[in-house]
TrEMBL record:
Localisation per UniProt entry: Membrane
Transmembrane parts of this sequence: 44-65
Membrane topology: Single-pass membrane protein
The keyword Transmembrane helix appears for this protein: yes
Keyword Transmembrane helix belongs to the record: yes
GO (cellular component) term, any one: voltage-gated potassium channel complex
Family note: Belongs to the potassium channel KCNE family.
Keywords: Membrane, Transmembrane, Transmembrane helix
GO biological process, one term: potassium ion export across plasma membrane
Record-given protein name: Uncharacterized protein
Length: 103
């Protein structure tokens, strides 16, 4: 192929490209809209985290309330009974010591 034929072929290609309407929808460098958005399910994640921490907070809260109820249900005279038992054991121990020293 000679240079004249090659130059004519290249000029015809350039003219056809310039005359044709360039369709921007087929442009490879154009920004394309993705088929799905990358953060479509972000609200599910936020909902999951909120439910997890609310469950954790409620568990701690109800555990605290239950422990307070257990303390309030305790016998109010329990401490007095324990004090009396301790005093009795101290007195009995003292009496045993006295008996051993006296005999």
């Amino acid at each position: 192929m000679n240079q004249t034929a090659l130059a004519a072929l290249i000029s015809q290609c350039v003219l056809q490209l310039l005359e044709r309407n360039l369709d921007t929808r087929k442009n490879a460098t154009e920004q394309k809209e993705p088929q799905y958005k990358p953060y479509d399910n972000a609200y599910f994640f936020i909902l999951f985290v909120m439910l997890f921490y609310s469950f954790l907070a409620l568990t701690v809260f109800f555990g605290y309330v239950r422990s307070k109820k257990a303390i309030s249900k305790k016998d109010p005279y329990q401490e007095e009974k324990m004090k009396v038992q301790v005093m009795c054991s101290i007195v009995l121990t003292a009496l045993d010591c006295v008996k051993q020293n006296c005999s």
